């Protein structure tokens, strides 16, 4: 199964299919068991409402989920869940099942293991309630349900991205990461960005590559190329205006840059995209 980290989800295009949502009322100490030879058929988000949950993984490792915590369960996961401290007649947990796929239809998960999301700030049960209410409505709007789920996953993704940036590992270059992610013109050099973070250039390069998977210069190139393509396809700006928006000193340099990194001129790229 392909894996896309949750913090990267906000920056990619993908599909959500096989949506299902429900409130769950469990008896105390009830055991939910996946089919061990196949695992879970879809991914899921579970909000623990009025109980606690004990997850027993296929390697016999265990972890506990408290009231008010959210769990992500990837497609294919093999586990048992024991629900403790349930209250008769009250909702024990809220479940949203779904499958995420890339644009070619290949499914992917956010990680290969069950993951607690309770450490993500600003995420609560409101969207669970809204999605379940819409799903159970007599007149069901799947488009509305998916739009809320996309929003929910985007919020989770952005919250985890910011948490990762401000983690102990990357906190010293957090300003530089945010600068590179939010400034498309990149008017500062890598040395200047490193100085802004009070670290050496080599330290910044090393940590940024560990964070993003790319050296900062390659990251800048990728962002500029992707943004240029998006602006070209929007058909709202001239090539000269796009060049200026991206911080290039002159149009010929932008054209040379675009062809070097895409293999086509801007005009050729537009023509190919219309075929």
TrEMBL record:
GO terms for molecular function: DNA-binding transcription factor activity; sequence-specific DNA binding. InterPro entries: Homeodomain-like_sf, HTH_AraC, HTH_AraC-typ_CS, RmlC_Cupin_sf. It comes from Congzhengia minquanensis. PROSITE patterns: HTH_ARAC_FAMILY_1, HTH_ARAC_FAMILY_2. The keyword Transcription applies. Keywords: DNA-binding, Transcription, Transcription regulation. This is AraC family transcriptional regulator. SUPFAM superfamilies: Homeodomain-like (SSF46689), RmlC-like cupins (SSF51182). Residues 174-272 form the HTH araC/xylS-type domain. The lineage of its organism: Bacteria, Bacillati, Bacillota, Clostridia, Eubacteriales. SMART domains: HTH_ARAC.
